[in-house]
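Human: You know discrete backbone vocabularies at least as well as I do. Show me how you would write down a chain together with its backbone fold. No explanation is needed for now; the record alone will do.

Assistant:
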Amino acid sequence: MNHIGMVMYPVGEDRRVAVADMVARAASLLPGQAPLQTFVHHNTLHAFEHLPFEKAVVRAARLFGTEPFQSEAAFHGHLGSGRIQCGDLDAVVGPVTGGDIPIVPGGPTRREFHALRLRHLLDVPRGPALRRLLHETPQLSRFTAHIGERRRAELLRQARRDRRGPAMPGSGARAPVEQLLERLWNRLKRVAPPPREAGRPSPRPRDRILAVTGADPDELVHPLMIRLCAAFLDQGVAYWPMPERERGLLGAFRRLYGRGGGPPDRFLRGLAPELRRQEAESWTAERTVAWALGELAVPERDWAAVIQATLLSLRGWAGMTRQFEHRPDRSPVEARPARLVDHLAVQLTLDAYAARHVVAERLGGRAALTDIDRPPRLAPEPDLELVYEAFVLAQIMPVDTAVFADAGHAAAWLAEVRSFDGIERRRLLHLAYERRHRIGVLDALAAHHALAATRRSPRPVFQAVFCIDEREESLRRHLEEHFPRAETFGYAGFFGVAMIYRGLQDVRPRPLCPVGVTPRHLVVEEPVGGTWPPRRESSRRRRGAWGRLVAVGNRTLVRGGALALVGGLAHLFGLFGHCLLPRLSRSWSRRLGAGAAAGPVTRLAVERVLTGASGDGPLRGYSVSEMADVVSAVLRTTGLGRALCPVVLVVGHGSSSLNNPHESAHDCGATGGGRGGPNARAFAAMANHPGVRANLRDRGIHLPEGTWFVGAYHDTCDDSMTYYDEDLVPERCRAEVGRAQQAVAAACVLAAHERSRRFESAPADLSPGDAPVHVGTRAVDLGQPRPEYGHATNAVCVVGRRSRTRGLFLDRRAFLVSYDPDGDPSGELLAGLLLAAGPVCAGINLEYYFSHVDPVGYGCGTKLPHNITGLLGVMDGHASDLRTGLPWQMVEIHEPVRLLLVVEADPERLAAILRAHPGLNRLVVNGWIRLVAWSPDSGAMRVFRHGVFVPHIPETTVFPVVDRSARFYAGERGHLGCAHAMAAFEAEPPGACDVFDPIGVPVVGHEPAGHGQWTREPR
């Protein structure tokens, strides 16, 4: 017998295989979040994509203890504000089984019951709160506050009719009401069923011990597991690496805790010799798991459930371990790739000793786990929460309370109230919430298409290709409004250049491509001439050595203390500047940095000089044919190649902010959480390459000799622009490039002005000239928890020609993907676009959805207690589970709706693409994204619903018409509807302006003739 009372048995190969299989199945439920430096948005519930969305979120909520939808109170707030309309409620209730049959004689039908119930928010107290309300307040003797005057009068008539016996002394006119309500309560309570079971009890021994003893073994195990995982997975923050790290987590644990003298924790007495025995006998992790489950007295039939529950108890750390197991390139260099089964073996071993310790302390030294059973169930009582809800609804609904004298009718009423529970109501309210959003967007697209068909955009003089990111929607719109002779396109922000990139200052290269792509090409930024100038190289090395000395010394006892004494005062001044004068501090830092370390002129080595790979590593650069493939794909897909201008800007994006652990989440998802500037620069270099142009001519794609591509980078946090390789611009194009840069600079000012309206710290009357200062200060403010809101407004993805959305105010809510259906007769390009844009945009959208509806369960909560841990993620305070998802400060303004994917294609083509690609088909058919086919010819829209495309019938055809977007959003904080901004169709910018900002950007133009009366309704 072992020390807990279970018989030990040998573990055969079959059991090891079974354990490995159980771990693999449980692993699919763990978070898929990468370390902070490569943070990429993904579907939080990726393991449930095989289920319909509405079922998946409910099942996941039961498993994880999270919320599937917004709260009912939040939905009713939207109902009160008009964000949800009564027509939306009636539409989503739809057909109900038996919907035309009254629930009780003379009462509402099921459909009427559902429609009325959705309109009322009832606060049903739970547990002790309900008992207090029933015994200490007069709730059972007076009408609920939810009834109107007509229903109150009807109930009074029923009370007088049903009155039995003389009135109670002193009760006066209230006696009939009290008697009616007392009878109603008693009749419902008499037939009420017992409360629903909370679900199958957790099979974890920890839960059984906690229920019996009141002591939680996890309080002993989790702090130790957190320290072990943080030390093992550390990415270079710790000065002392974890000893024996190269053996893996289980091997290091055995060596550290198997030393003579034993670990210091009281609950781990006897662990050291057991670990030495296991190591001597070369136990695998799978065998250790099986042994620990036996120690914990877990029947084999429950092994899978216990393994799953154990991993989910610290799912953040377990998920990060799994990330390193599947992506060993992200693991620390010194460590053997992490294994989830090692993590499980260590945790279950600790669980076994913690269980023994708690049982011995609380139940006596001879007690064993087999002696512990859950407390006996008490005799079932009626579900008073259900009775109370049914009692209140019987007062609200058009029903004669006398019918409840029949026990069968009372039971039917209770059954209907129970079946239409909070989850079902929130599901329908969510559908109504999404319906209003969908109708608003589709109606606006249809109306704008009809309006734009009567206008002609002026011939462009330059073109700009941006990332499809919804944050670039406002920049593109303002650019076209401010300079109508600009033409913009949207393409995934890696611009087809899937590369491993090493910048001039980078210690090691990193991939810049979508996470689902494995890059094969290495692109290096090199100084012109191949080497640094000797003086600059020497200065760079000295600064690097000093920086490393300080960084390492700060983490040691002696050098850290000395550095604190020597540099503490200087650091204090820097901290003072970052907190109180952030913008001035950044300005001085840049001046000092520019004076001390101006870098050399550089180029990207995009062309492969030598063919073939060097060893097993990546290919150094691209061949001419490979570069032509990249350029051709972008030109054909976007339609950019049909009529090229003399200047084409290729603009990548990213975000830079101070003291922001989730900065990578604000960067470009198409580059795997990196910044898209190098990709834009590489694409421009490829498109300007003479050999690439010659290769494209052989393919029938002609790039005019007078066309020049310029790579650029847009910082979405401070709305600044950086341009690359400007010294290579031919003389013939320099004037046009300068003109384009001026137009983009003005658009950046207006884009900063538009997004500043969402910041509460920005004045409502902030001028465009002050907006760059405001957003720039946020980027460098050490105490700023909201440097930018990232993707918090995402809701729509439009795949099609820009002519269909040009001039439409979409409130920075739409991913805009350029696609020319005329140049894609086979649909091959569209399939590739949807396979890339669909999952990527859905991943962004769904992570924001879940982090908003449950900011603690799915998100990582508020930033205030966050501490960065090992460059892996954040913890709450000094020790917690690794928090996954997004912080509340990133999602607080988000509207949690599923992505509305509008594609300029016929339904037949989209259906064929879905049939050919199961992954995309699963997302669409199961409702994780909502697909709309927008006919390229007629402009008719069809919404994919229940496996078929059904016509969309517009409800609204008139939208606000303004000359510029600023007229519409000025002074507003919340989400806005759509509007037509007609300046994008002007041949030249308006000559007369009512208001100019200090730098000369027109803010509010004149009201052009024929544009209609400006109005703010509807939104």
Remarks:
- Residues 458-514+624-784 form one domain.
- The chain is about 45% helix and 10% strand.
